[in-house]
Write a structure and sequence with these properties.
The protein is mainly β. It has helices at 32-40, 51-55, 154-158, and strands at residues 22-24, 60-62, 70-75, 78-92, 95-101, 109-117, 126-131, 136-137, 142-149. Strands 3-4-5-6-7-9 form a 6-stranded antiparallel barrel.
Length: 159
Amino acid sequence: MVQSVAPLDLTTTPFDAYTAPRILYDQPSSECVPYARNVSGVAIWGDAYTWWRQAEGRYARSGHPTEGSVLVMRGYMDDSKGHVAVVKAVVSPRIVRVDHANWLNGGEVSVNVPVIDVSPLNDWSEVRVWHIPGGYWGGRTYQAQGFIHPIGLVASATG
């Protein structure tokens, strides 16, 4: 059986006036890890690149996004770096909106940021992130390890 893959569209703006991504300049400076921990309730400490491994046996993990789950990405061309972001909304089979901190390396908090699954099999293993200052999909493809689901999301993540 051939799996149906949702079409990939990098030309349509993935938000409207109410869900536009923005940087919150009135928030205290933060790194991605404490921000994701505080917003999601996933009680993991340490560098973002260690979260996937640390979540094993403690939290449900999957390749499917759910609202409130934590997207875990590996660094661009460097597996010793990573990033975590909290899924705010599942927009479509290939797009989520996340809230996260320090994506632009200035300690900023960004909300409603679209992330698109660009993996060939639509399995969320490769993603691109909306570049807020430029108003376009970022040019880099990041490897995603998957989604960590807080305790209350275990049934919906695995069901």
